[in-house]
Amino acid sequence: MGSAVAWHLARRGRRVVGLEQFEPGHDLGGSHGRSRIFRLAYGQDDYVRLAVEALPLWRALEDEAGVEILVQGGAIDHGSSVVLDRIGAAFARHGLEAALLGQAEAERRWAGFRFDGPVLYSPDGGRTDADAALFALQQRAAALGAEMRFSSPVRSVHVRGEGVVVETGGDTVEADVVVVTANAWLPKLLSGIVEVPPMRITQEQPAFFAPLDGAATWPSFIHYVGEGQLASDFAAYGVPSPAEGGVKVGEHGTGIEIDPDGERPPPDPVRIERLSDYVRLHLPGLNPDPSGISRCLYDMTADEDFVVDRVGRVVIGGGFSGHGFKFVPSVGRLLADLADGIPHQIGRFSARR
Ligand SMILES: Cc1cc2nc3c(=O)[nH]c(=O)nc-3n(C[C@H](O)[C@H](O)[C@H](O)COP(=O)(O)OP(=O)(O)OC[C@H]3O[C@@H](n4cnc5c(N)ncnc54)[C@H](O)[C@@H]3O)c2cc1C
Question: What's residue 321's pLDDT?
């Protein structure tokens, strides 16, 4: 998110300094790895609009940086008919292409799956390459004049008169506005400065499973068991990730709660066994023994809505609750607008909720 804000503001000719505590390409936050689901399939219009806006912005970034980031191989939702109806209605409201397939037809089309009912298919969905996206955003922001400083941990943020003062290890940066997109570290960094909704920081651990038939096609997917689109309504999600050795499958929001500055626990074998059981039951086209495991942080708000707001001289982007990546360029645009003093009308993103 911070890299996307820097890209947008640098494109507008603003003077930007980006501060990152770790080195480029680190794997200690929420944005590393080669695969994230890209989907338009939300029941809430705010998210559908942001996903639709993100699509051409991803393409613009690809053109600017000369890299492939977004592959639209299709995305499916299955399980709860209540959720499928809600998503289907949103697709209709926004004039988006979608098809509802019967179980048998869907299993013919995606032989690696075992469904328990109809499947909603969205051809616009697919996957984004997170590592490629970050490289492109940071490279483009720097090329457009932003000063991107790595290994520069921010120790504190102070609001002073008509501006802000940001202390990093050994340096002070003075600016008109600060945009804080520190994900798992955000509550700590803003403590005593701006109140934000409570966030649970968890270490999630999706795993990679190799296809048994190399020719099979794998759309990105979400399997709903509940009637909402919250983490507790997910059975599992998945995204094809050829660069990571197969299909990434994960539980959503079931990770261990951690302190991001503390020791990172090793992957939990019980959760991995649960994923393998899920694969055996619902994804017979995959080898249930994982070929790899990833650890990655979520910053979960209670309602799983984002925090995208401005309070005085401080712009806040956080609480992306495990579903923010697809929106990176459009949320980046919202945050850049807020830095420029342009408010948005998305009430659910308020920091004061
Ligand atoms: C396992 C997993 C699967 C996911 N799957 C999907 C998916 O399929 N689709 C989707 O849309 N989204 C998905 N997401 C969510 C998405 O990846 C995140 O919402 C998004 O990457 C968050 O970006 P961010 O910039 O807020 O966080 P981060 O990338 O963590 O950025 C925060 C940065 O702030 C830096 N920082 C923190 N404190 C300081 C400090 N004091 N000084 C300097 N720098 C600091 C950190 O080092 C970090 O680099 C998934 C997330 C995970 C973890």
Answer: 97
